[in-house]
Design a protein that fits this description.
Elements lengths: L1 H18 L6 E8 L10 E4 L5 E3 L5 E6 L4 E5 L6 E4 L5 E2 L2 E2 L24 H7 L6 E3 L4 E3 L8 E4 L10 H5 L7 E5 L2 E5 L11 E4 L2 E3 L11 E7 L1 H8 L7 E6 L23 E2 L14 H7 L4 H14 L4 H15 L2 H14 L4 H13 L3 H14 L4 H13 L3 H8 L6 H14 L8 H6 L5 E9 L5 E7 L4 E6 L8 E7 L4 E11 L6 E9 L7 E9 L4 E10 L1
Parallel strand pairs: 1-7, 1-8, 14-17
Antiparallel strand pairs: 1-4, 2-3, 2-5, 5-6, 9-10, 11-16, 12-13, 14-15, 16-17, 18-21, 19-22, 19-24, 20-21, 20-23, 23-26, 24-25
Helix pairs in contact: 5-6, 7-8, 7-9, 9-10, 10-11, 11-12
Amino acid sequence: MVKKKYNIALLFIIAVAWLVPQKITAQVEGRVTDSIQQPIPQVNIIIKKTERGTQTDAQGKYAILAKAGDTLIFSHIGRQPVEVRVEKSPSEINVEMPSMNIELEEVEIKKAKRKLGYKSQKELLAEYPTNKKLIKTAWLILDKDLSSTHFRIVDGEDLVPAGPSFLTSLQDHFPQMRVAYGLEGTEVYLRGYMTDSIAPIFDVDGFIQTSPPTYLSANDIDRVAVLERNAAIARYGPQGVGGVIVVNTKAQTWMDDMGVIRTYDNRSLADSLLREVTLLEPYRPHESFLMDELKKVKTEKEALDIYEGQKELHPKNPSYFIEAYDFFLSRWGNEEKSFELIGSIMDDFSDDVPVLKALAYLHQKYGQNEDALNIYLEILKLQYDLAQSHRDVANAYAEVGDFKKAMEFYTNIQFGGQLITTEVVNMLERNKVDFPAYKDMVSAIDHSETRTRLVFEWNNLEAEFELHFVAPDGYFDTWSNKAVQGYSCKQFFIDQENKGVWQVNVDYKYNQSEVPTYLKVSVYHDYGLTSQQVDIKVYQLSENHEKVQLFVLHEN
């Protein structure tokens, strides 16, 4: 009888427990967008008062295990953080993150005085082979002793050549690190197998990548640095929330883009080889036969009459309209006719990015920065997911003096590396505006040895070409645009030591598109100084396997 009563009581307790609502941990998912419903990648999402978190993917989507009552915190650089309470789990929670209201104060940024122990990037590069406390990153060379954040460096000699990659041996130096090799790929976590762990990113000789570099063995490594959460975020921003593993290989003698074109920079130029240089023919534009007829006339009225007849016969030829626009503006200064031509291009080729970008280049060449900005905004709508589009809009806003808007778009760029840092810092320094998140970068970058900056941009991602830099002493350096990932632009610097006459040549391979490749080159003199000036050149490349001399620089 007692046993029967006990069973009844137990059943009653179980029934009551079943009826009480339980907080079940299940998947919460959703999408994060901006104010115009565009996805925001790399948004950090953590559960409040825990270390559990995740990030949004390229489409702004996320998924995380959470229970009713948890609070999700959404954060992203340049945007106002958002907190959302989970009312039920599982559920779908979509979030809109507005841009942060950035106030730019007009204060003068003074160049930081040289601190005790502070060295320029050039000095650190020279010291790198013997100083094992230095590590080269996609941003700058870091000195472990002088860094404001803690990180560890492991010498490649201390890695044992065992396992599928160097990561196997690296685990011995970081007990919390976990590496799992599988058929579907390799997973790496710096904090072990935690629920919703975020994988680190990898900085390999200046290239940022999200997948582990399992192609490297311990014998390939010069040194490795591991930056965990705080140190990684301080240097790499939100994408470093899972940590960063920085790898310097023996095969690469890397120097960041703030250095000299001549040597060392294997990320951007092949090793310098002393060789006999064949003088190339200067660049001449390959204009259509239609332009030959226009250029023969002596008066603007004759030119306009010929144009009216030609445009009816070639309504779908974007190259013709771009060339005609350039012709009327450069020869006759006829802005009214030029704007009419622009209208034809914008109406007929409104979704053709290479055509629109070529037109924007010409706008910038002639100082029509407001018009260039409007075109870059149209391109952004067509290619919102490309970092290049955000970079172009940010620069265009900076050129018209809207620095607040420029910073808003700069902060949308992920993995911008040294190129974006250079442009942001130059904008802040020269225009005397303040943005706290970039103060450390402003003081760290030293322009004292650099005076000439070259920026190459091309309108078509399918174009393939090589640039040849012929130094005053006869050295011949080569760079291929195939080395660029995610951008259609590249910067180079010539420092004050490389005085004399430089030649810049191009070896144009091909372009599968019907639209010619337009190459814009911005030559900055006295870069970073108040006396800075820029000369913009635009070249049309259409003949496959064409080798020509683009221009000559006189560095005094």
